[in-house]
Amino acid sequence: MRALIAGAGGQLGRALQACAPVGVTVIAPPEAEFDITDTATVARVIAHSRADIVFNAAAYTAVDKAQADAAQAQRINACAVALLAAHAPRLVHVSTDFVFDGTASQPYAPDAAPNPVSAYGATKLAGEIAAGPDALIVRTAWVYAAVGSNFVHTMLRLMRERPEVRVVADQIGTPTHVAGLARALWTLSAASAHGLHHWTDAGVASWYDFATAIQEEALAIGLLDAAVPIIPIRTRDYPTPAQRPAYSVLDKTSSWAITGPAAHWRCELRLCLAAIREDQK
């Protein structure tokens, strides 16, 4: 099988390359050579790649910036998806928990009614529609990796630089290590899954819980030299341009029936921090 990855240089794109199954030829062009917003480029790259499947790991993910730049977010998160869907033999598209409003009190099923409360969430929902019913669409949440810009690296930096760290404690979701997500995408695609699915690591946490775990695990392996106080705050104490879902835990029943249950998020966090430590040696 030949697999083409859009967004190959991002944290998910790199993870997909790292865990590609034996026998799969991966084509991973840099962004400069694969502008997914350009019709001619999309048609040419997909045709030239002779890909059997296209993974869309590209996205406009600057949640707050999207509030003032909704047109560009729509161009990347929705219009480009329509181009990929029109030319890809099979499309695997990654979406987000931000398509929900966060008012639920139990995990969101794939068929739960979406109601995005931000421009980012609205453009990602439009991308799901653009992908079409034959695509495999996988919603995930709170993704982080050993490389790139994400919550884990931000927390490690702040814990080294500041005497204390203040973290929102009233937003609930599931941290998801990109390595597990990438493996799940390969498994789901190999099983010819299609339609909407949810996939994250197991467990539930607030951002405050996540930050506390990052510090504890990083101290245990020497990534941090000393602990700093982590202060739980409310969302309203940390205003942002874009509203976030207060609760965005996803129901993974359908995807886990194929991939098997995911590891708990804290186990995956340990693996990620160990990888960061190795990179810093």
Widest sheet: strand ordering:
2-1-3-4-5-10
The arrangement of helices and strands along the chain is: EHEHEHEHEEHEEEHEEHEHH
Report the portion of residues in β strands. 15-25%
Report how far the terminal alpha carbons are from each other: 36 Å
- Principal-axes shape call: globular
Number of helices, counting only DSSP H or I runs of 4 residues or more: 9
Number of domains: 1
**CATH H-level homologous superfamily name:** NAD(P)-binding Rossmann-like Domain
Largest sheet: 6 strands, parallel
| Strand tally | 12
The top-level CATH class is Alpha Beta
Explain how this protein is built.
By secondary structure, the chain is an alpha/beta fold. The chain has one domain (2-280): Rossmann fold. The protein has nine helices and twelve strands. The protein has helices spanning 11-18, 39-49, 70-87, 119-131, 151-161, 178-190, 207-220, 253-259, 265-280, and strands at 2-6, 25-27, 53-56, 91-96, 136-140, 143-144, 165-168, 172-173, 176-177, 195-198, 205-206, 230-233. The strands form four sheets. The chain has a six-stranded parallel β-sheet, with helices on both faces. Strands 6-9 form a two-stranded parallel sheet. It has a two-stranded parallel ribbon with strand order 7-12. The mean pLDDT is 97.
